[in-house]
Amino acid sequence: MDFELRRAREKLEKEQRERKERARLKLQKEKKVKEEAQKQKEAIEAVQRSRRIDAAQAQLKAARQMQENLLAGGGIVFYRLLEAFFYEGGGDKIKLPPSCFAELSEQGTFDKRQGPLYFQLSLVHEESTSSIQTTDKVKQGRTTHSGVLEFTADEGSVGLPPHVWNNLFSEGTPKPPLVEIRYVWLPKGTYAKLQPENVGFSDLPNHKAILETCLRQHATLSQGDILTVNYGELAYELRVLELKPSSSVSVLETDIEVDIVDPDTSSQKTDGHVLMPLVFGMPQIGTIEEGKFVYYKFSIDNVIWEQLSPGNSCVEVKLESETDGGDTDIFISRHPVIFPTRHRHEWSSHDIGSKTLILSSNDKNMGAGTYSIGVYGFKGITNYKISVMVQDNFNQNVGQQASSSMSSMELDTEQCRNCKHYIPGRTIALHEAYCSRHNVVCQHAGCGVVLRIEESKNHIHCGRCGQAFQQAELEKHMKVFHEPLHCPCGIILEKEQMVEHQASVCPLRLITCRFCGDMVQAGRSAMDVRDRFRGLSEHESICGSRTAPCDSCGRSVMLKDMDIHQIAVHQSG
């Protein structure tokens, strides 16, 4: 009996211990669940608090951005993300879609702003980030400014000219790139500091006037931009280092003080378009490779020109070169043609070996000014020495030679039947016997040169132009004078026709505009028939369409009609 009671008591105690253990484990589990729930609640509250803070900051940033846009746009807010496309054009004016015009009109942009529109353009990169949801994050890159040309682009796109495209994008930019466009107000510029990227820009005649002509196509300038200035076939890049009164300015209807500093010598680009000074009487030595140019310049001031103008002196340009496997050509031009080429020059020599060019005051192209010399490597690598000097008594020596030949004509002479020279009568028989055995006369029409028999084997005439020269010179003559040359305007001609074409007909030739006074490309024929009758080039027709007040009556008259206005209105009255 006691045994059964003991067993029942032990069983009861065991069940009580198990119930207590289960209760304890249950309490621990419930406590753990509550702690995890509390942690989740705190985490959710932290996320919500962070979102509220982010939303407040975003709202504050948007308000600040709106305020900045209002200030930048003078109370007008305009923002677009558009895909950029390239179009050929000058200056910095972009093409926008018609919807931009409508949006700007709704804000009264054209009513409030009596003047041009300016825009800030920024390169946009798209980066994808992975989180709970995939979002696109916009990152701004390079920034520049522009005006607007027209509102004719396709919706969702913007047309950029070369200046804006090159300043905004790099080679690794994806295509089509995304551009952020904002309407801004820009102050009128008062000062600009520019630095050429390479040497040679300061050698241009009146280079500041050339820069002014380039800036007429622009509406804005931004610090850090690269400005490309074209002069004929050449292009010079200038970096904008500093602007006042702000880092981005308007260049329309304002006078800007421009400083052009020297190029950075540590990063100079080496190309062939550099003029090295050449002093009278001081030769220079150099080496030229095949197909390349080395350029020099010399100046004829008023003192030297007074010495040359009576005709008693001349300028001698001498090029001494080695003929061991190499050969050179020499070309000379007078500014504004600062870099003479094979088909754009005023004087040239293609002789094999050393060569000399004589420039006298009898030449209509001569005068006081700056001249450029181009040494061209025709074949191989050639060492040369070039010099410029003033030679006295040039015409006097020529006159002496002429007088001596005239005196020989006045003697008792007879003409040799072989060489046609006049020989004294007492020796004519002996001369003709010797001359007929050793000399021959070239039978080519118009030649008649007397040659030694051994020399006549090498004496030939070009089958295309009839010019006479030695056999060894045929290859160079054919390549120089009869090889087709390609003009940048697209026409193909031989050398002599090309020289004449580029001097008087080529639309890319440089002329002095009679209205603005700048050296500009002539362009093709004027569109207006009346302007063609006046002899105006394409540039002069456009430039002359600008108006200016008449000095007599104050009426606004086109520059190209000013002379007619003066005659028809004032002189007739």
TrEMBL record:
Q: Which domain of life is it from?
A: Eukaryota
The residue ranges of the TRAFD1/XAF1 zinc finger domain are 533-566
Alphabetized UniProt keyword annotations: Coiled coil, Ubl conjugation pathway
Keyword Transmembrane helix assigned to the entry: answer is no
What is the name attached to this protein's record? Answer: Ubiquitin recognition factor in ER-associated degradation protein 1 isoform A
What family does this belong to?
Answer: Belongs to the UFD1 family.
**Residues forming coiled coils:** 5-50
Cite the Ubiquitin fusion degradation protein UFD1 N-terminal subdomain domain residue spans from the record: 91-187, 188-263
Q: What would be an example GO MF term here?
A: polyubiquitin modification-dependent protein binding
Q: Name one GO cellular component term.
A: VCP-NPL4-UFD1 AAA ATPase complex
Task: Please give a single GO biological process term from the UniProt record.
Answer: ubiquitin-dependent protein catabolic process
